[in-house]
Amino acid sequence: MEPVLIADERTQIEQFLDTNRDELVEAVEGLTDEQARRRLVPSLTTPLGLLKHVTWAEQVWFHVGLAGRTREELGLPLENDPSWTVHEDDTVAAVVAEYRRVCAEAREIAAAYALDDLAVHNRRGPLTLRWLYLHMIEEIARHAGHADILREQILAGDAVEVPE
Fold first, then answer.
1. Against a cut of 0.85, is the pTM above it?
2. What's the mean per-residue pLDDT of the chain?
3. What is the DSSP letter of 158?
4. Where are the domains of the chain?
């Protein structure tokens, strides 16, 4: 869906964020669980790992940073690296469902704040909701691009060559 072209600032920002969220999900949907786990780079970056990482990031910024919940309460690792880990029982369907749930909660949390209201429960100090939204747009767009490239490589590698 194309972001809203003419609307107030908040509507546009939220639409850009939701569009990026959807694009990241689209990059993993249709992949098998095996394909979504495939590592094509030395890091822990996989299509499914990208989605798990942004699920963690959504919770860190909205659930913790804005709403004031604790990482312990949410079962979140304190560091970034474990957020990329894909476990044997992680499936595309389950990780997508969890991401959608976390995003719905993030939308609900953010709805109670104005763009200039401060997120005070984060390590960087007070930041506006506007900054948080823009940061998440940047973060998710970057990772959606990574996921698109990985998906293309996976599908190209799995393609059956047609004889001429």
1. yes
2. 93
3. H
4. 9-158
Are 155 and 40 a contacting pair, CB within 8 Å? no
Closest CA to 158 of 61, 35, 62: 35
- For the record, the structure tokens of 61 come out as 């910024």
Question: What is the third-level CATH fold of 9-158?
Answer: Four Helix Bundle (Hemerythrin (Met), subunit A) (1.20.120)
DSSP at 115? T
Q: Which two tokens stand for residue 57?
A: 């990031």
Percent of the chain past pLDDT 70, that is, above it, reads 95
CA distance 141 to 159: 27
Q: What per-residue confidence (pLDDT) applies to 164?
A: 53
pLDDT at residue number 36: 97
CB-count exposure of residue 33 (10 Å: 0-12, 13-18, 19+)? middle
Rounded to a whole number of angstroms, the CA Rg of the chain reads 17
- Under a CB-based contact definition with an 8 Å cutoff, are residues 102 and 61 in contact? no
Q: Looking at 59-128, list the stretches that DSSP marks H as alpha helix, in order from N- to C-terminal side.
A: 71-74, 92-111
